[in-house]
Each structure stands twice: as structure tokens, then as C-alpha cells.
Amino acid sequence: METFCNILLVDDDKQNRTVVDLLLQQCGYTVFSSNNGFDALTILDSLRIDVVLSDIKMPRITGLELLDAIHKKLPDIPVILMTAYAELDTAVDAIKKGAFDFIIKPYKPEHLFHSVKRALNQRRLMKIEKNYKNLLEDTV
Question: 88-96 and 63-73 are packed helices; what angle lies between their axes, rounded to 10 degrees?
Fold first, then answer.
């Protein structure tokens, strides 16, 4: 259980937010939710978030646009994109833009858990590598 991990869930569908929120809380994660990309960016400015889960099809700012904005501000945060519209072009575009994973709705909870856990592990490894580089630079 990863009780110290904060996850930001962005989805304009309240029912999906509720289900994903409950699933992730059962795994011990702290979940912050937003129904749009603009509010998600505000949350990212004020809280330490370890992973972002975002729907792709949202009004005003899409999940892909949110992905770009997050990576400009906080490039180390893994972003997992979710969609009910499984189009190959969208998935390829998401991965090219740096999405950590691409989940197709409806999904099995195990797939969601596995994706989040892998994203957290990658984030942890990136922090270790960054700290090690800083230590080496200080030593030299």
C-alpha cells in the first residue's frame, strides 16, 4: 500500500471520478479530484502530486492539452490518460506527447492499479536518479 502517494484524478464525468476515487482510496492512495483541466493545473500548483490520471475527452481543455501543460510545468509527474474512445491515432499521439500509459474505459480495476503502481515506481526511480546526480555534482 502506497499511503504516502497523492493522485490527481481529472474527469468531467462525476460517476467515473467517484468510482476511480473509491478504487484508489481502497489501495491506500490519497486522491484529489477535478472535473476540468484548469482546476487540475491549480491543484498541481498547490499540492505535491505523484501521478495524474486524466480523461482525454473533456470540454475546454482536453486531456492531451493538459498533458502538455503538466509536462511544461512539472515534467517528472507521470500522466496516465483514460478514454472511452479507443482510437489508435489518439493513443499513439498520447504516447508521443509523453503520456505514461493509456487506459481504455471500461477497464478492469487491476489494470488501473497496475498502471498507477508502475507510474509511482518510475517516479520514485527518477527521484533517486536525480538525487544521485545532485550528490555526485556536489561531491565533484
Answer: 10
> CA 15, 20, 22, 23 torsion: positive or negative?
positive
Cβ-proximal residues to 44 (8 Å cutoff; 6+ apart), any chain: 8, 52, 70, 73, 74, 77
* Residues facing 103 on adjacent strands: 82
State yes or no: pLDDT of 34 exceeds 50. yes
CB atoms within 10 A of CB 122: 14
3-state secondary structure of 8: strand
Mean pLDDT of the chain: 90
- CATH code of the domain made up of 6-139: 3.40.50.2300
Specify the long-range contacts of residues 72-75, CB closer than 8 Å, at least 24 apart.
73/41, 73/44, 73/45, 74/44, 74/49
**Distance in angstroms (rounded) separating the CA atoms of residues 98 and 79:** 8
Q: Could you read off the pLDDT of 110-131 as tens digits, one per residue? A: 999 999 999 999 988 888 888 8
